[in-house]
Amino acid sequence: MDTESTWDVIVIGAGLSGLLAAARLQSGGARVLVLDKGRGMGGRLATRRTGPAVFDHGAQFFTARDPEFCSRVDDWVAAGIVKAWATGFALADGTFKQDGETRFRGVTGMSSIARHLAQGLDVRVQSRAAALATRGGAWVVTTEAGECLPGRALLLTPPVPQSLELIATASFLPPERVLGELKQIEYAPCLAVLAQLSGPSLIPQPGGLWWEGEPISWMADNQQKGVSPASGAAVTVHAGRHFSRTHWEKPESEVTGALLAVAAPWLGSVPVHTQLHRWRYSLPLRVHPERCLVLCETPPLVLAGDAFGGPRVEGAALSGLAAGAALARLL
Description:
This protein is of the alpha/beta class and about 325 residues long.
């Protein structure tokens, strides 16, 4: 195999885990390629613009508790990438829940964090990995477009079921115990409605509204949040787990209509445009205890993501950092 055309590490998935791992590896001198099937990077660090309205429609905010992650967040704040949003939100019963824990947001939307992390990295979006193989002591990733990309090591950060599907194409079978643990990892789906309004919403300051969980779990006013401009009244509605599961295959109009009918008392204005986004793997319900998992050392194959070590944004970040460190040792 031509070593000059072989990447040191190929990272599948340009979400928070993949980007942080790639940045750590590249800073140590590794040649890193990041592939993502989506149109943009960030995974659930997702921001969408519709006309004048701007929506955070995936992860709404994040907290920081671990010292390593807190240090990263301090750097992002200093760079003007993230800022503190709130330490509590209103509840749908009209009360306010204040717990004192700072929730951070991207200054121009949650996807701005991913764009910041991707600076200087070779990230190729709309590039879906279709198959894996080993050849000459390296991994070869074949994309749907037919590209064959060799790498000395491979990091998989998609949702675990998708990573297992990819691994199966390589005829690589993890140990039975490990495979059993990975198959036990479960995710909750989430249906997200993006509603552009004719005027301001009635969601109280600072722009977030916690519900009891069904059929709505969360609402956010992206204008109050500071993401959408004054001319773009934009509300994000996240459905609860049960509603999302039972309505997953329902038509968009039915899902949107049902959720907006429940949300109506807090909308305050007429929806002039709506979109529905279906997050199939929104939240890991059962996670792996390790921050990353080394499935193979020769050639190195590592799994990471929000299903490793903790389901929150912070967990995904720490998983990516751990994976980067593990791969640096294995190269």
